[in-house]
Specification:
By secondary structure, this protein is mainly alpha-helical. It is built from 14 helices and four strands. The protein folds into two domains: 2-42 and 188-385; 50-168, abc type-2 transporter like domain (abc type-2 transporter like fold, 3-Layer(aba) Sandwich). The model is unreliable at 171-187 (pLDDT under 50).
Length: 388
């Protein structure tokens, strides 16, 4: 009971402070409302046309593929803005540079000797021999949404062409009837579904920096922790009480955000779904440990405030909370790659089917766990050296 009473004291001392109450409980709701009033129109589904460069070769099969892409590049609802150039080393090098500069979304290269390879493949097929079809080179830009989307579209077109070529040479394919059902993803992009997990990460992050890091430093500096430590309460119970009080605060924050997102903006994300719960728990542990780390390295409240302000905006905006982060210069990209919020945001959106993560699933878990281990080990060591 003494542990719970102390936890209640820590929680009440935070919520009674007007500044903490506003920034930790009211501000996240205001931020969500402002973002939903400003940005939804920018994310409405629109017609998509990709910039495609086709490096052609002479030959019948090359011309057939070229004609298909021309057909897909014409009319009102065209898929590609097509640029056709002869496949030479100079042209390929030039177009590769344009791709790196994001002036082109995708390059499709018909390699030299493609027609001869196609004829050889057909002959082997007719003889009943197993053979791999000749390859067509596709160059895309990694971690670029437009380029990766264009790649998936072209890949699907080429797969259909391969089947058509097989049919043309008289090879019979068994028709398989199938039904399509969308599972774990959405047919259109919803900004509320995108931003809701981000705001949940934001409130936990704010609590980690200010509700734990700043608050715990203030308790040390003001002598409150020292006075508590001279009582008969064991140090372990003090820590447990403080952790429980932060859990109270974080749960209250997430409930308020979830209610606003669900009933005011009609998000389709289920806050009780297993992926959401798992990543939310991982977020709470990771960003709370970051708060304890901040309290461990800060001897004064002003020092903790300075460090938290330095970390606050870079970690938020470079973590992809509000919008996808891609194509940033390498001078900044290393901050994206070491930022735990990057992997938490990508992982939870991928798990919920909102947006494909550029990182494997295990990476979105391993990196936050590594941060947790580092922060907690450092905090334990540091607090042993400091007087509390």
């Amino acid at each position: 009971m003494r542990t719970i009473k102390l936890a209640n004291y820590f929680f009440k001392s935070t919520t009674r402070d007007r500044s903490d109450f506003f920034w930790l409980l009211v501000f996240p709701i205001i931020l969500l409302v402002i973002l939903m009033l400003i940005f939804p129109s920018l994310y409405e589904p629109k017609e998509v046309t990709f910039n495609l460069v086709f490096l052609s070769q002479e030959g019948m099969f090359s011309e057939i593929i070229e004609k298909v892409f021309k057909d897909l590049s014409g009319g009102r609802y065209r898929i590609f803005r097509l640029s056709i150039v002869k496949n030479t080393k100079e042209n390929l090098d030039r177009e590769m540079e344009r791709l790196k500069e994001k002036k082109t979304d995708l390059i499709v290269e018909i390699p030299e000797g493609f027609d001869a390879q196609m004829l050889n493949w057909f002959m082997l097929k007719n003889l009943g021999m197993t053979a791999s079809p000749p390859s067509i080179n596709i160059y895309s830009l990694k971690h670029n949404i437009s380029s990766e989307s264009a790649y998936l579209t072209v890949k699907n077109v080429l797969q259909k062409l391969e089947l058509e070529f097989i049919k043309r040479i008289g090879y019979k394919l068994k028709e398989v009837k199938s039904e399509t059902e969308v599972i774990g993803t959405r047919s259109t992009f919803s900004y509320i579904d995108f931003i809701y997990p981000g705001i949940v990460i934001f409130v936990v992050f704010m609590t980690g920096l200010f509700g734990i890091g700043m608050h715990l430093t203030w308790l040390k500096e003001s002598g409150i922790l020292k006075r508590i430590m001279v009582t008969s309460l064991p140090k372990s119970r003090l820590i447990i009480s403080y952790v429980i009080s932060r859990i109270y605060l974080i749960v209250l924050q997430i409930v308020l955000i979830s209610l606003v997102a669900k009933f005011l903006f009609k998000t389709t994300v289920n806050p009780l779904s297993l992926p959401f719960i798992v990543y939310t728990l991982l977020t709470i542990i990771c960003l709370s440990s970051l708060g304890f780390f901040l309290a461990a390295v800060s001897k004064t409240t002003s020092g903790a405030n300075a460090i938290s302000q330095i970390l606050n905006f870079p970690l938020q905006f470079l973590g992809g909370i509000y919008f996808p982060v891609s194509g940033v210069p390498w001078a900044i990209r290393w901050l994206v790659l070491i930022n735990p919020i990057t992997y938490l945001a990508s992982g939870i959106r991928d798990a919920l089917g909102i947006m494909k993560s550029p990182y494997p699933l295990y990476i979105t878990i391993i990196v936050p766990v590594a941060w947790i281990i580092f922060c907690l080990l450092f905090t334990i060591k540091r607090f042993k050296l400091e007087e509390v």
